[in-house]
């Protein structure tokens, strides 16, 4: 008789130290919220698109959200395969221009976690990003002052 309860799985299967890009970006969205007293936060949304990102099974959009004025701004789309890398990012057009990406193909391909972190820093520090956040904060203050 066959012992079907015998462990047939290899010993290498265990929890991993790998951090998903979604986890990294969600944490950055929370950090933005803390910096802005939750007036502007970053949110990751599942994104189904006909863009070139669709060739990866995990496709998302990162948006800046200002609830007080009911506004969202797409900062970038990103996608990755089951193996996580390479990650593809397509930033907002203005940010792509700031990063000197080709207007015809503004896609960034990232092969390592360290590169991913550096690209996120560049996107978050872009003049367009900072301008959007400060403008949302100002407009939110206008709404607050009216009430």
From TrEMBL:
Protein name as annotated = Uncharacterized protein
């Amino acid at each position: 008789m066959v012992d079907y309860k015998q462990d047939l799985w290899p010993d290498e299967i265990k929890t991993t130290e790998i951090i998903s890009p979604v986890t990294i970006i969600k944490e950055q969205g929370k950090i933005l919220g803390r910096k802005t007293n939750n007036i502007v936060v970053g949110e990751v949304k599942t994104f189904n698109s006909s863009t070139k990102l669709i060739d990866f099974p995990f496709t998302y959009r990162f948006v800046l959200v200002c609830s007080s004025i009911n506004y969202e701004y797409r900062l970038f789309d990103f996608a990755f395969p089951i193996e996580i890398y390479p990650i593809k990012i397509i930033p907002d057009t203005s940010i792509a221009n700031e990063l000197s990406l080709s207007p015809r193909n503004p896609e960034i391909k990232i092969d390592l976690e360290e590169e991913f972190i550096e690209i996120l820093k560049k996107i978050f520090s872009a003049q367009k990003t900072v301008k959007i956040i400060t403008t949302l904060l100002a407009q939110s203050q206008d709404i607050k002052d009216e009430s």
